[in-house]
Amino acid sequence: MQQDAIERVREMQRRAREKLESSNQIASAPVRQQPVQQAAYRQSSPAVPAAPASPAQPFQGFLEKLGLDGETALILILLFLLINEGADQTLILALVYILMV
After folding, report:
1. Which one, out of 27, 41, 66, 94, has a CA that is 20 to 30 A from the CA of 82?
2. pLDDT tens per residue, range 47-68
């Protein structure tokens, strides 16, 4: 019985390795083509100044317009998800209390 379990574990590990290797091969193919495409794009397009928006904070302007900081927005999103999933009401009330303080 224990021997069967060991064989099943080895079989699952073998399958996982095969899937991982096949997904790595598929994912690595577009990466090799990307620098060539970027070089061709750079040659064909004129120089354009970079956009001033920072990719690290894409929603900062949106949050400022609503008068929210990042922590408050995060708690509101968490509340929305928990309510939709039917989470414990104690947890939801605790998060509402944190928002009020």
Report:
1. 66
2. 555 555 555 566 667 666 677 7
pTM for this one? Answer: 0.38
- Taken in order 78, 79, 80, 85, the sign of the CA dihedral is positive
Same structural domain for residues 34 and 68? no
37 and 64 fall within a common domain: no
Q: Are residues 33 and 68 in the same domain?
A: no
Q: Are 99 and 72 in contact (CB under 8 A)?
A: yes
Report pLDDT digits (tens) over 81-93: 999 988 889 988 9
Taking alpha carbons only, the member of 75, 66, 70, 81 closest to residue 94 is 75
User: Residue 34 and residue 16: Cα distance in Å, rounded?
Assistant: 28
The total number of structural domains in the chain stands at: 2
Q: How many CB atoms lie within 10 A of CB 73?
A: 14
